[in-house]
Amino acid sequence: MSTKIGAHVDQTDPIAEAVARETTLVQFFRGAPRGSTGPVVRCAGGAAAVGGGAGAAGVDLYVHAPYIVNVATTNNRIRIPSRKLLQQHMDAAAEIGAKGLIVHGGHVNKDDDPAVGFDNWRKAVEATDLKIPLLIENTAGGDNAMARHLDRIAGVWDAISSVEGADDVGFCLDTCHAWAGGIELGDAVEKVRAITGRIDLVHANDSRDDFDSGADRHANFGQGHLPADEFAGVVREAGAPVICETPGGAAEHLADFAWLRDHL
User: Fold this and answer.
1) Going residue by residue through the chain (264 aa), what tens digit of pLDDT does each one get?
2) Residue from 60, 20, 36 nearest 240 by CA
3) Dihedral, CA atoms, 192, 193, 195, 200, nearest 10 degrees?
């Protein structure tokens, strides 16, 4: 079975964006990427038009939660609104029939015990009505990130594994974040699967920066620092749908799709 490859697109008309990229897979925000307000509907016809249009066109939708969501933090003024925002975006993603909601792993403060962050993730999963899969994404930077290093990802998974609804929590593996975060790509899929038991989605991105730089700066395929064979190997071994979050529009994404298919 060939790998399904799509892209992150503007939320105004995701079905048209999918058509422009000759794909049946897109991801988008349902609000401001860095905003703390709830989801909005930018598409003419509202959420029903997005969901219905996707169904008619055979397009799979994924929604990315705002970057500001941090359910791990010990700061109540961030954690409590983050849980509320996570539920709002979960509801909005389910409303349009999305296949999953992607959320970053978050972080704790410099002097905090990471175990508190792991437990806060447990509480967040318990508190959230998971109407569709919640996909936790590995992140590139931060010494106290919950999903940068493999041992921290393991801590999150250990904490949430016994919670009701844990089966609805999956993993999104970002290649740029793994590289920049210090995870070797050669055996990344094997090591992540050993922890989570699953990889539900791949964010395929080249990296503008060096290995373990901690910098989250995406590049188009073949124009960054990722070794081409290892990059393609992650996609091949993960066997999951692929979303490209690379710079540019439809033309650049089509070029990235072609590059990846050539290397697969």
Assistant:
1) 589 999 999 999 999 999 999 999 999 999 888 888 889 878 878 888 899 999 999 999 999 999 999 999 999 999 999 999 999 999 999 999 999 999 999 999 999 999 999 999 999 999 999 999 999 999 999 889 999 999 999 999 999 998 999 999 999 999 999 999 999 999 999 999 999 999 999 999 999 999 999 999 999 999 999 999 999 999 999 999 999 999 999 999 999 999 999 999
2) 60
3) 90
CATH of 5-263, one of 3.40.50.10190, 3.20.20.150, 2.60.40.10, 2.40.110.10: 3.20.20.150
- Residue 98's CB is within 10 A of a number of other CB atoms, namely 25
Give the H/E segment covering residue 14: helix 14-20
Please, are residues 61 and 29 in contact by the beta-carbon 8 Å criterion? no
Q: Do residues 71 and 124 lie in contact, with contact meaning Cβ atoms separated by under 8 Å?
A: yes
Q: Which strand (E) or helix (H) includes residue 8? A: strand 5-8
Domain map (residue ranges) of the chain: 5-263
